[in-house]
Amino acid sequence: MIKKTILVIIFLLALTANSQEIKIDTVIKVDNFKLSLKIVDTLVEQKKSNFQKLIGYAEFKSDNSHVRARSREKLFMEKFDNLIKKDSTELFLKIDNEDKWKLIKLSPSKGEYENTLYDFYEKENFYLVRTQWGEGNNYKIVNKTNGSVTETFGEPVFAKSENFIMSLNVDLVAEYTENGFEFFKEKDEQIIKIGEYKPNNWGPEWGKEIAENKYIVKCYSVDNYLNQNEFFLEINIKNNGR
Fold this sequence. Notes:
mainly beta
């Protein structure tokens, strides 16, 4: 059950459409966590994804994200055939408890029509499943230990020292999917959603933890002419529940 929390957002955001000047001074309080966001003048390379670490780099030429997801899954199946099975659009993942296979269910009422294995976090022991629906998609974080499934609209970033997960997604043009951040915590082998933050004029593309409880997130905004302006946020997280 998702715990209801009060998400307190105090922010100052100014956007000039032509110059794309953005100023952000934001504090997010969710559950026992306090997140401070600020723009930083830096240039950070995206870290290697789990996919690159496990499979190696593969260039997928299609512009269709669903086609690329299927290509990723095919490579996962070739290397981890003991963890994944696929029957048409039905996806089965190996779960540690009772050494069984779990069907990752689709929700036809939501327009979902295919699940694909998108990533595998060996250290954290989670699968990431990409779910296609209509013109958009979301994700499911699957606990490899017990098979519990948590839905999210973005790709997760796991904290190294906290039971904290932040998922990110940007969609400012097509707007098929949600744009912004979702926040979760791990408790008793379950992932619990504790809040979200959805900015209107910009969105987070990817992020990485650069130090304990400190993240750099690459973001961009879009002006009236659909020009993208990239910038970086620093996010510091403090757990007030310690």
